[in-house]
Amino acid sequence: MDDQKSAAGASSVQGNKLYVGGIPYRSTEDDMKKAFGEAGNVVSTSIISDRMTGRSRGFGFVEMATEAEAQAAIDRWDGKEMDGRTLSVSFARPQGDRPPRREGGFGGGNSGGNGGGYGRGGY
Prior knowledge:
The chain is α+β, with helices and mostly antiparallel strands. It has a domain at about 10-95: 2-Layer Sandwich (Alpha-Beta Plaits). It has three helices and six strands; from the N terminus they run αβαββαβββ. The protein has helices spanning about 1-10, 30-35, 65-75, and strands spanning about 15-20, 40-50, 55-65, 80, 85, 90. The strands form two sheets. A four-stranded antiparallel sheet has the order 2-3-1-6. The termini are far apart. About 15% of the residues are buried.
């Protein structure tokens, strides 16, 4: 099992960093630090906010001091309710392991370039 743990720590999972989904929109990083502190030492917290509005997007990251404390935080909070929302807590994946993001809003996707929607052309 030690071989598995060292291999997993090297690439697929960051051992003490957690992804937290379902964070109540009014929660602060201090609230998260206090809540996750029930499971161990919290190194850092960050709640991701919308670039345009500055409002919480309802997810973030919590870094615990050790992998054991991170597991304890998962056991304590995954599937549990905080201020009316159910949290989803798991080990964070490194950025390279995620599927590419699909840009929403302006200019995303394949617009086709068929001249304003008159695609079949010809008279």
